[in-house]
Amino acid sequence: MPKQKTSFREIRYNEKRQKILENAAKLFARKGYEKATLEEIAAKLKLTKGSLYHYIKSKEEMLFQIQMQALDQANEALERVLRSGLDPVEKLREAIKSHVQIVTREHVIGTLRQQELLLPRKWREKVVAERDRFERAFQSIILEGVEAGVFERKNWRITALAALGALNWIPRWYSPRGELSAEEIGEAMADFILRGFAGGVSSLTT
Amino acid sequence: MPKQKTSFREIRYNEKRQKILENAAKLFARKGYEKATLEEIAAKLKLTKGSLYHYIKSKEEMLFQIQMQALDQANEALERVLRSGLDPVEKLREAIKSHVQIVTREHVIGTLRQQELLLPRKWREKVVAERDRFERAFQSIILEGVEAGVFERKNWRITALAALGALNWIPRWYSPRGELSAEEIGEAMADFILRGFAGGVSSLTT
Q1: At what angle do helices A59-82 and A88-105 cross, to 10 degrees?
Q2: Are B100 and B189 in contact (CB under 8 A)?
């Protein structure tokens, strides 16, 4: 068989698989993972359950793949920022802005967070490991700013978790029909979080 | 039947029901709501499934009651702050600190957020309405500060959502065995969020 043909078929296969995952993500987010069925996902794509099985074996595998793809994107974007050579302040700003781009584009997937409890242990551990990798990289930017003396040192770990919470919460309220663009939300988040790390709360207390 | 006796029986009944809910919350948080069974909850409390049914009819009702109790507490605490007569800065600080007290005490329940999709519509709508009530009250404090000129007006709605995200995320990382007490976490959160509302990010940009 000529190599070209196989490869074309592979591309088609992967595209189809990706489409299945995207549809599954939307259905999970709308109905809840537990209530969604493989039959519904197949029907939406005009597939039989048998031909769906050719691409992906179970609902759990779908949830796993969806979560891993989103985490991969987030980690890749963050690693680009880490390699950027920017100073810590600009690095944190870029990390926040690029992450907001991803979580708003993938806000459907974002609503599936916490569902990893439903995965079998081998997959759950992979999801948690990828998430930990993201959080460690994010914290490393903050620590860099703390060490450089530009970010408040006091309780910096809690502050880092607060910042991650602000970002991780976005999929819960973001709507593509909202007033602000993803860029504007990214800027607003970066402003808020950078102010939060800057110190100087004393000027506000009465 | 003497009234005293009935009332004593009611207290016992309510205590037992509360204990069932607390055990269910822990099991849901640990295993995931879907994987936990009524049989397990009953067994943990040395009850038969039949006597469990005397207190509560379904897993869905447990999830509903657990979420509503936590939201009630959060709303009550926030309303006390709203009535306090403090200025906006101190009001926001108190709101954050008292909310952190609740979410750290109830961190098990906090991990059950997002699960309301699993509830029947009539209950789901109540949970969402209580949550909206909390978020509106929280935003009203921020708006008060914006109007008073002490909080940054630009993108204040996004900033309010960022602050709520930081708080709502706490149950995901909080551990009662962690280094900092709930009080210290509350202070750190309040410092971070108040700095975030204070403006003055320009001093940080390079």
Answers
A1: 150
A2: yes
With a threshold of 0.90, tell me whether the complex ipTM lies above it. no
Query: Which tokens sit at B202?
Result: 């320009």
**Could you identify the residue written with the tokens 């190599």?**
A3
Q: Burial, A47: exposed, middle or buried (Cβ in 10 Å; 0-12, 13-18, 19+)?
A: middle
Q: What pTM was estimated for this model as a whole?
A: 0.85
- Closest among A134, A114, A133 to A124, alpha carbons compared: A114
Cβ neighbours of residue B109 closer than 8 Å, sequence gap 6 or more: B25, B29, B66, B67, B69, B70, B171
CA distance B155 to chain A (A): 6
| Interchain contact, B193 vs A198, CB within 8 Å | no
Which tens digit of pLDDT belongs to each residue from A19-52? 999 999 988 888 878 888 999 999 999 999 889 9
Same domain, A86 and A147: yes
Q: Which pLDDT tens digit goes with each residue over A123-142?
A: 989 999 999 999 999 999 99
Q: Are B137 and B36 in the same domain?
A: no
B45 contact A CB<8A: no
A146 and A164, same domain (yes or no): yes
CB B194 within 8 A of CB B166: no
Q: Number of A:B CB contacts under 8 A? A: 161
Range 105-124 of B in CB contact (< 8 A) with A: 111, 113-114, 117-118
